[in-house]
Write a structure and sequence with these properties.
The protein is 6% helix and 41% strand. It is built from 5 helices and 56 strands. Among the domains are: 3-19 and 640-687, no CATH class; 394-579 and 600-636, Beta Barrel (Lipocalin), CATH 2.40.128.630. Strand 31 and strand 32 form a beta hairpin.
Length: 689
């Protein structure tokens, strides 16, 4: 009998004592523009207030971290990677995951989970896939919290294992790219730290250039191995095959060159800009300007992303440029010198383009979404978000006076309105107006708050409010007593008193598109970029509840910070626990439904907004149900994770018995298992030493 090994592994894993199947590693309406990437300042400090996770010095947090898992990214997709044979697509996101897709079908193959921590730690700003499809490089704000330097993670594509870390980088990684033959990997960095080049086989650094005046977001290799980069210092740099700087020249199209791409033969270089709608084409030999592609009519946003078709006949560009809310990919014939066509693509800023065979391209966007345009310019595939889009919900984000009922919209601009009652756990679609619900208050006597919408310089009575450098404000709510106000930004909530003194700040998962304060003045809520609505205790910013309404408008899940939850039928799989296994190993993910007996607590959920304290709600619920007055320790419920050692992955066997050896991986410990657990069914499997 011939049996494919992965099937046997699945049966064995399901049978092992105490083991559970888990996800294992083997983002006419007046649309506000998405902040110019990067949304987070390059030197963003770690904010421990965003998480209760504990950590040891030099190691990631060991406490399990509750996370959304929708089968798709929940925040902006920053970068893509495709192998030379175009079998696989890799996507990296601010949601701190890397996902591997079968490009032809759009099927999700793996979700890779690097170690993560509080605040920005774990956000993925850059990914690359080696030409042979074997290795995934991923980095961003990765490792800084425990190493105090940034790391590039190298994953085995087939198994999802974290094979190696390239450590010691002084700043966040903005872009990664492999050479055409896979020999080298380039990383460009934030601030003025320039670029590094590594040898792929060993991870050894072979070149660096730190003479940059600002951060770098673009790099590309030509077929011969030459390298070109961009920097916000205004320069495009060209290096020879030995990575010696040969030419450094300013491009005329803008002050902040962003993406850069060699043509198929290396004769031309295309450059897009973060601060311009221009697209320049330069000489691939000395970077002298050759021509500018026609951008007539491109009157908003930018065309920061550029890429050539595989044969060099077409030039593509995209970015935040939009028409009636749709982000367009602009394509020129004759290598950028001919006629231009606008091709509809995404609903939010397009952050990356890569060429595909036969003239097509694949794009990644902030929706979050990724898609494929074929050579005819048709949208052949679109993998869209599972999250509601809270952009521009504004007055449509409403609360009752006690905060227990919230109104929102599933679509941008507050369209497709819905209402959710925490006490009743009912989602009402297209609800009738109700006077008990109130929109955010944004004006009050004595509080002249200006420039708070899509601005880095909000002001109170003419005085600037203190934010992080480049932090953008998006939403505002004034408390009923007019003594405090809440500002929602691209990564935090900030409560100020009426004099502009900050009372507290907490990190939020994605842009706080809208905020509101309940009429009681006790509770605030935020509609976040990851598709969640979160409630906070106003006096100190303590998170109380999180609500995720799935875009299908049927499923929803509601949970506390400690993981007690309630969910509609079929929605328990939408959240789970991320468990770090150390800084040098990929993390594990356990779906919440595995712990239903301990954490499915609608009775606790009901009491949280009444008590404004999760621990008090738990005590009341336990008293009423006569349960032990003790919080659940999740670590005690985590199942062992095992790795199949024999037979090897994808091995074919034809014997009546299958010798199997497994290794248990639990809390970072590796314990060989060579005996059959007593309760294992009598499958035709033999565990061998």
């Amino acid at each position: 009998m011939r049996v494919l090994c992965p099937v046997v592994c699945f049966v064995l894993l399901a049978a092992l004592v105490g083991c559970q199947q888990l996800t294992r590693n083997p983002f006419s309406v007046d649309l506000p523009p998405v902040p110019t990437w990067p949304a987070v300042p390059a030197a963003e400090p770690e904010r421990t207030t965003a998480s209760r996770a504990s950590s040891q010095p030099g190691e990631p947090p060991t406490t399990p971290i509750l996370r959304l898992e929708t089968g798709m990214h929940t925040e902006v997709i920053k970068r893509l990677g495709v192998d030379a044979a175009q079998r696989y697509l890799v996507t990296g996101s601010d949601d701190k995951t890397v996902r591997v897709w079968e490009l032809a079908s759009g099927r999700l193959l793996h979700t890779l989970r690097p170690p993560l921590g509080a605040g920005n730690e774990g956000k993925i700003y850059a990914v690359a896939l080696s030409p042979d499809g074997s290795t995934i490089a991923a980095a961003g704000y990765t490792g800084e919290a425990w190493d105090k330097t940034v790391s590039i993670y190298l994953f085995d594509q087939a198994s999802g294992r974290l094979r190696q870390r390239l450590t010691g980088l002084p700043e966040t990684v903005k872009h990664l790219a492999y050479s055409r033959d896979g020999t080298f990997l380039v990383a460009t960095l934030g601030r003025t730290y320039g670029m590094r080049v590594y040898r792929s086989t060993t991870g050894a650094e072979v070149a660096r250039d730190t003479e940059y005046g600002d951060q770098s977001y673009g790099a590309d290799f030509d077929p011969s191995g030459r390298l070109v980069t961009t920097s916000w210092d205004g320069f495009v740099r060209l290096y020879d095959r030995d990575f010696r700087l040969r030419v450094k020249r300013k491009a005329p199209g803008g002050q902040r060159p962003f993406a850069v791409a060699f043509s198929h033969d290396g004769s031309r270089v295309a450059v897009g800009f973060a601060d311009s709608t221009r697209v320049n084409v330069l000489s691939g030999q000395d970077l002298t300007p050759l021509y500018a592609s026609d951008t007539t009519g491109v009157d908003n946003g930018n065309l920061s992303q550029v890429v050539w078709s595989a044969d060099g006949k077409w030039l593509y560009a995209a970015g935040s440029y939009q028409v009636r809310g749709t982000r367009l990919i602009r394509r020129w014939t004759a290598g950028g010198q001919g006629l231009a066509t606008n091709l509809p693509a995404a609903q939010n800023t397009i952050f990356h383009l890569l060429p595909l065979g036969r003239g097509g391209v694949v794009f990644g966007a902030a929706d979050p979404a990724w898609g494929v345009l074929n050579a005819s310019g048709q949208l052949q595939r679109l993998q869209g978000p599972a999250t509601a889009d809270f952009r521009n919900v504004r007055e449509g984000f409403q609360l009752t006076s006690d905060g227990t009922t919230v109104q929102f919209g599933y679509e941008v601009g507050g369209k497709a309105p819905a209402r959710f009652a925490v006490r009743d756990r009912v989602v009402t679609l297209d609800p009738a107006p109700d006077r008990v619900l109130a929109a955010p208050v944004t004006t009050a006597p004595g509080l002249e708050i200006r420039d708070w919408r899509n601005s880095t310089t909000p002001r109170l009575n003419g005085i600037p409010l203190k934010l992080e450098p480049s932090e953008t404000s998006f939403s505002l709510a004034i408390a009923p007593d007019s003594q405090r106000f809440l500002l929602g930004t691209e990564f935090s909530l900030r409560l100020f008193d009426r004099h502009g003194a900050e009372q507290w700040q907490v990190i939020v998962p994605g842009i706080a598109w809208s905020v509101n304060i309940a009429g009681s003045g006790q509770v605030a809520a935020a509609a976040c970029g990851d598709g969640t609505i979160r409630w906070y205790r106003l006096r100190d910013g303590q998170e109380l509840l999180a609500f995720f309404p799935h875009k299908d408008r049927k499923r929803w899940v509601l949970w506390t910070l400690s993981g007690y939850y309630d969910a509609s039928p079929g929605a328990e799989e939408l959240i789970g626990w991320h468990v770090n296994r150390g800084r040098a190993q990929e993390a594990d993910f356990f779906s919440a439904e595995k712990f239903r007996a301990a954490f499915y607590r609608p009775d606790v959920i009901t009491r949280v907004l009444d008590t404004l304290d999760e621990a008090a709600a738990l005590r009341l619920a336990n008293t009423e149900t006569k349960q032990p007055q003790k919080a659940v320790a999740l670590q005690q419920w985590l199942s062992p994770v095992v790795q199949i050692l024999i037979p090897q992955d994808s091995a074919m066997v034809s014997t009546s018995q299958i010798p199997v050896r497994v290794k248990e991986l639990t809390q970072g410990r590796q314990t060989p298992t060579t005996t059959r657990p007593p309760s294992m069914p009598d499958f035709p499997v033999a565990l061998v030493p």
